[in-house]
Amino acid sequence: MLPASTQVWTRPQLKFTEPWSGPWRGQHPILPLKTAVNNSFVNIARDELAVICQQYTENPVRQITAGRQRQQQSAPSPNDSPLKPNPSWRPISTDFEVISNSKVYVDTEGNIFKSSVMPILLSNDGPLLSTVLALSAAEWDRRGAHDGVDYGNSAIRYKGKALSQLRSSIMAETNAEENVLTCVLQASLEISAGSGPDWLIHLRGALAIMENHPGCVSANCAALALQYFRFRYILMKTTENRELARNESKTKTSNSDQCGDAIEALNRISLKPDSRQTVHPQTGCSTELMELINLISLTATNEQQPTTASEDGPSLERRIRELEFHATDDYLLKSAECFRLATLIYLHLKVYHAPIRFPSMSTLLQPLIDCLAGIIREDLPRRSFPMWPLFIAGCTSCIDEHRKAVLDMLYLLDDKWPISNISTVTEVMATIYNFRDLNDGLAATVQHDWQNIIGKFGWKLSLS
Question: Which residue windows does the record flag with biased composition (Polar residues) (predicted)?
Answer without folding.
Answer: 65-80
